[in-house]
Amino acid sequence: MAETRPPDASRRSERSRRAIYDAALALVGEAGYTRTTIEGIAARAGVGKQTIYRWWPSKAAVLLDAFLDRAEQAAQGEPDLPDTGDLEADLKLVLRATVDELNSPVYDAPARALAAESVSDPALAAQFVERLLEPSLQMYVRRLDAARAAGHVRAGIDPRIALELLVGPLAHRWLLRTLPLTHEYADKVVEYALYGLAPRD
Amino acid sequence: MAETRPPDASRRSERSRRAIYDAALALVGEAGYTRTTIEGIAARAGVGKQTIYRWWPSKAAVLLDAFLDRAEQAAQGEPDLPDTGDLEADLKLVLRATVDELNSPVYDAPARALAAESVSDPALAAQFVERLLEPSLQMYVRRLDAARAAGHVRAGIDPRIALELLVGPLAHRWLLRTLPLTHEYADKVVEYALYGLAPRD
Predict the structure, then answer these.
(1) Residue B183 pLDDT exceeds 70
(2) Is A184 within 8 Å of chain B by CB?
(3) If you average pLDDT over every residue of chain A, what do you get?
(4) Residue B199: strand, helix, or coil
(5) Structural domain boundaries of chain B?
(6) What is the fold, at CATH topology level, of the domain defined by A80-201?
(7) Which of residues B87 and B9 earns the better pLDDT score?
(8) What's the CATH fold of domain B1-66?
(9) Taking a contact as any Cβ pair under 8 Å apart, which residues of chain B between 49 and 78 contact chain A?
(10) How large is the average pLDDT for residues B76-90?
């Protein structure tokens, strides 16, 4: 679709959009999801609340787009997991980084809010999975496919299931707050998933 | 502590307690968690709302106790995972039953409500983990310990971490609604967790 708005308006709305994302993430972090309102986000972003209502149907939708925007910026030019040829080392690096992100106070409140809403709202969950979660899981699929081609993953392993043995345990600890998320834990999850619990003989 | 209430009063309050649990689970299933109120639970259970307020601080607390009560009834006399000596078969049985429970409409709405509240409320999460989740995870610890003693689990494996490779993937699919939960999926998770993703040679 051709961009028909003049460049100035486009730049202006891009600035507003970013300001809205920053405001939403910050407010949820400071005040909690329940106490965050569209009005509050608008005031902090310096835009009219009609601007937000025009672009998004709910505060959960704003939050989802804020995360998508962050994920796109973080992946800038590098939309894949590292591949040094050492699957174990690469996965440990990625899962340790995931632990750091999940433990970061800036990330925790808005990410939990989005996850909690998705747990109880199927429509939001569909958006969350399709636009944010599944694309990030597909990075694991590609890395595991490459490992299989290199002989580092058993033939017959379905990478879309295999990746859940890596991300599932971390998500379980984080979402349900069972035990602390540490680098040591991330390492063990990678080791157990790669080599299994049963003896090798 | 000695039971000082006369037997009749005790039986009556036991009946009320059960009626409140049934009402809470049914209402959340029918109307959703947000639209379920203490008043609604009281009306359906045929008790005064003060009875509920006297015993529980919130509707989430009622729901948690309702789940605990159900879990205690389900475990009646059998508070452990099956142990036929075949770890793979036993775990497949347990994970398939978990899939069935997570897919059951009666269970889904109240369990999701409790999980979603726990994701965003650390105080409720602490109760949820301590009283409901961790005791059920300890059943896996005991089964994996027995398997280790029998030589079916590698020496050096920490069973409290190992179990998360089994329950984490299922929880991830269920909570975040990524893909369907099926028996075939449960079987693969058990196989991958036991034998690992890396080739055995």
Answers:
(1) yes
(2) no
(3) 91
(4) coil
(5) 1-66, 80-201
(6) Tetracycline Repressor; domain 2 (1.10.357)
(7) B87
(8) Tetracycline Repressor; domain 2 (1.10.357)
(9) none
(10) 89
